[in-house]
Write a structure and sequence with these properties.
This protein is of the alpha/beta class and 335 residues long. The protein folds into 2 domains: 131 residues, Aspartate Aminotransferase, domain 1 (Alpha-Beta Complex); 195 residues, Aspartate Aminotransferase, domain 2 (3-Layer(aba) Sandwich), CATH 3.40.640. It contains 11 helices and 11 strands. It has a 6-stranded mixed β-sheet. Strand 3, helix 4 and strand 4 form a beta-alpha-beta unit.
Length: 335
């Protein structure tokens, strides 16, 4: 049997549109900062992608600053006076840069990558939009926030490229000093190939959203959760009763370590996660779940299953069957 990929919240498979745009960009010779014809051609690739990102997230093109990803975009926090307050569901990089202060910046994860739970973003200054773009409706212009961060690989673009959205009129110190690229906000020659892939991917992702693809994904997610509930009365479906991303299930089975489940399912041909990809390799309980009131042992007994447009009904049914078998084996060993 072929492997089944159910870890879209960690990274989505590269979209064919992104690959095509990247291959085409490889043929563009010039530096985007050069004024000759070749340079203008490279600049055009970057600006087309900037317009695609702006259209997708509901902002002006001039508000888009290309970065190496959401982690770098979050690092701008060190330039903001007054400190940062971060909610538990936000990107790890936001936590890494939080500081105490008198008038802290409010950073909120629009949706948790671990549980899929949507947050109330009213009053937030910075939005971690990495998990919502292309999956649920999102418009930066409506949010009232000054900043947002996103990563291309979450919606089928290449790894290593993302964007910081900076509301018009908000000034920040340069993320990276040097040649003054990205309107002086992030120096360094732009990753033309990656940026081209990001633009094509986000445009395709929005096409999927408009076509109702994620409603179909949500139906599959519900089938998966119904199967889990039938197999295990003790398993908690975290966030089931509140607004969530359409693709995300956080399954918490007390006494069965999440990392053990991940390894067992991997050997059976299924890629899932025990937490966010930014925490991979860290054997510790979820900060998000502990922030919701679960104790450390229970928080360490959760797995995340995140579906995507390529997920099929057969994939979901097979997952439930295999997971149920692994659970029964665990029960026998624990008896």
């Amino acid at each position: 049997m072929s492997r089944v990929y159910l870890d879209y919240n960690a990274t989505a498979p590269l979209r064919v549109q992104a690959k095509g745009a990247m291959v085409a960009a490889m043929e563009v010779v010039g530096n985007p900062s050069s004024v000759h014809g070749e340079g203008r051609a490279a600049k055009a690739v970057v600006e087309r992608a900037r317009a695609q990102v702006a259209q997708a997230v509901g902002c002006n093109a001039a508000e888009v600053v290309f970065t190496s990803g959401a982690t770098e975009a979050a690092s701008f926090l060190r330039h903001i006076a007054g400190g940062v307050e971060v909610d538990p569901a936000a990107h790890d990089a936001l936590w890494a840069h939080r500081r105490a202060g008198d008038a802290p910046l409010q950073a909120v994860g629009v949706a948790s990558g671990e549980t899929g739970i949507m947050a109330d973003v009213a009053g937030a200054d910075l939005l971690d939009a990495t998990q919502v773009v292309g999956r649920v409706p999102f418009a930066f212009s409506w949010s009232g926030a000054d900043f947002a961060i996103l990563s291309a690989h979450k919606f089928g673009g290449p790894k290593g490229v993302g964007a910081l959205i900076v509301r018009d009129g908000v000034d920040i110190a340069a993320l990276q000093r040097g040649g003054g690229q990205e309107m002086g906000r992030r120096s360094g020659t732009e990753n033309v190939i990656g940026i081209a892939g990001m633009g094509a991917a986000i445009e395709a992702a929005m096409g999927d959203l408009d076509a109702g693809v994620w409603a179909g994904v949500e139906e599959l997610r519900n089938i998966l959760e119904s199967g889990v509930e039938a197999a295990s009365k003790e398993t908690i479906l975290v966030g089931k009763e509140v607004a969530r991303l359409p693709n995300t299930s956080c399954l918490l089975t007390p006494g069965w370590k999440g990392e053990t489940q991940v390894m067992a399912m991997d050997l059976a041909g299924f890629a899932i996660s025990a937490g966010s990809a930014c925490s991979s390799g860290k054997v510790k309980a979820s900060r998000v779940l502990m922030g919701m009131g679960f104790d450390e042992a229970d928080a360490a007994s959760a797995i995340r299953v995140s579906l995507g447009p390529e997920t099929t009904r057969d994939d979901v049914i097979r997952f439930v069957d295999v997971w149920t078998d692994k659970l029964q084996r665990h029960r026998l060993r624990s008896a």
